[in-house]
Amino acid sequence: xxxxxxxxxxxxxxxxxxxxxxxxxxxxxxxxxxxxxxxxxxxxxxxxxxxxxxxxxxxxxxxxxxxxxxxxxxxxxxxxxxxxxxxxxxxxxxxxxxxxxxxxxxxxxxxxxxxxxxxxxxxxxxxxxxxxxxxxxxxxxxxxxxxxxxxxxxxxxxxxxxxxxxxxxxxxxxxxxxxxxxxxxxxxxxxxxxxxxxxxxxxxxxxxxxxxxxxxxxxxxxxxxxxxxxxxxxxxxxxxxxxxxxxxxxxxxxxxxxxxxxxxxxxxxxxxxxxxxxxxxxxxxxxxxxxxxxxxxxxxxxxxxxxxxxxxxxxxxxxxxxxxxxxxxxxxxxxxxxxxxxxxxxxxxxxxxxxxxxxxxx
Length: 362
What we know:
Strand order of the largest sheet: 2-11-10-5-4-3-6
Low-confidence stretches: none
Largest sheet: 7 strands, antiparallel
Number of strands: 18
Structural class: alpha+beta
CATH architecture of the largest domain: Alpha-Beta Complex
Radius of gyration: 22 Å
Number of helices: 10
Strand content: 25-35%
CATH topology of the largest domain: Naphthalene 1,2-dioxygenase Alpha Subunit, Chain A, domain 1
CATH class of the largest domain: Alpha Beta
Helix content: 10-25%
Shape: globular
CATH superfamily of the largest domain: Naphthalene 1,2-dioxygenase Alpha Subunit, Chain A, domain 1
Distance between the termini: 22 Å
């Protein structure tokens, strides 16, 4: 039995993309960074582009992170120049100063000074603050408030990965990919392994069940076993790194994967976590920031070398991006109306249903 995918416009239409920016991304908890990417020094910041909305994530004097619209409350001037690639992160110091008329703000967003306006009610002109929450060492921002907390959005995912020390992990390798495909094409690909046999020979050598029956009987709750003698995502299936403490017997030898809507993927091995943060740039392009996360105790070892994991992942990633770009190009055909999901692709239906709910189509 085949199930229909979303229709063509969901993947190629600029009009649909415009609606997605509001209903899918601005209205949901979007992963914007690892917490450790914003330095502990008060006033440290990172500027992020949330589908056209420039947002500052700032470390306060109380060490808390806060998210503000990158806009002075006086005349709307950008506080940080979003066209300056060297200004995407830095440190304000004690004050955030607008370059136009020198209004100044404390790093908690409150207005500190406005020249020659002594009678101004400063309490009414703080920076516009957005919702921010943290889970597993990841920073999430939501532009449009609603009653659904980040915990609610995570659902059962937090429980399924609770044994992995996500908040303690540190990135030892980062690469940014520019992929000519819709973010949903990429997510649907991530969520199924029907394609693994034809597309990922190296991956299927490591995890033979990925090619058996089109990957139809995979148990992602307990994790997917590797070939005999293998227990992690490297070409050899082994590593000199110690496993994370506190993992279950199954987690020590199996591989887990999670998709945190709308833009964070996690692939969890016993010694490292592969992290994918998606930044959609339009209906046909997605920037993907890929990090390999390790426990700091292992990074401090003199013989630490993440290349065994990175080299393997990089091969698999490029295979995925290449096939997804071919899907995207095929979808632009005027003869394409919608795709079909086979029974072994059922997890991808979750994306269809989630997206339709967020877009108000259900």
